[in-house]
Design a protein that fits this description.
This protein is an alpha+beta fold. The protein folds into 2 domains: about 90 residues, no CATH class; about 140 residues, no CATH class. Helices cover about 25% and strands about 25% of the residues. The chain contains 5 helices and 14 strands. The chain has a 4-stranded antiparallel sheet. A 4-stranded antiparallel sheet has the order 7-8-6-10, covered by helices on one side. β1 and β2 form a beta hairpin. α2 packs across α3. Bound molecules: flavin-adenine dinucleotide.
Length: about 240
Amino acid sequence: MGVVFLFDTKFKKALGNSLVLIESKFKEKAVINYGFLINCAGLYADVISHNFNLALNYKIIPFKGLYLVYNEKDNFFINKSIYPVPDLRFPFLGVHFTVSDNIKVGPTATLALYKENYNLFYRFNLKEFFEVLCTAEILFMKKGEYRKLFFNEFKKNIKLLLYKEASKLVKNIPSLDKFNWYLAGIRAQLIDLSLMELVDDFLIKDTKDSLHVLNAVSPAFTASFPFANYIIQNYIIPKIRKDIR
Ligand SMILES: Cc1cc2nc3c(=O)[nH]c(=O)nc-3n(C[C@H](O)[C@H](O)[C@H](O)COP(=O)(O)OP(=O)(O)OC[C@H]3O[C@@H](n4cnc5c(N)ncnc54)[C@H](O)[C@@H]3O)c2cc1C
């Protein structure tokens, strides 16, 4: 139907008049024109929306989610995912068990040092490092409950402490040596800078020809058709109708 996908291509900058600067993985730059732009760039959705002068009082802070994986492939000790009762003060699920082709325990929610801090210096970004530090410091100072949360989550970087947390949910959990560290994920956590609060609902901002999904939080939002429907019904169809009129 004439759709062109530009894979491995980065949004660099909004140039105004429905033009954006993009860059390929080979660093080739190009200017493209858009009819309607949808920004759903996860960790970088805030940077892109700021390009459109939107959501200037919001910033995304990265939180690293570490998992342990059970390394006995065919001797599962549980057969269903198990979740703790969530602490409603915070937008994190808490350490839980996920059962698929393996059993995962986690995730933690520790402050990452920069947005793509999957491991030590992978894609290190100095500007993001200072931004994270400054925002986290203000959050720490402002709210004792966040300070406590950050500290408690940080402790779970120690394998034994993460394991102990998980043991609260399952009595017959196998011994610690049966678990190994697994790949980390980074959660894009939106902060409301005017209230200095973690935002725990999804947030959408728009202009007449662009839409920005700033906080696509979970659980169960990932690939969620009702969420896509909500955006189409409430944001896209009304704009198309206006154009037709
Ligand atoms: C540890 C962890 C566990 C989770 N567990 C669950 C779970 O069990 N269930 C659940 O529903 N959700 C879970 N989530 C949350 C879920 O992963 C997110 O809600 C979901 O990925 C958000 O989707 P998204 O499309 O908005 O962003 P993303 O999946 O982050 O996609 C954003 C995309 O934008 C691209 N991008 C970024 N910047 C640019 C740019 N400048 N130009 C072009 N492209 C760009 C990125 O490369 C990426 O492909 C978990 C998250 C973490 C971190």
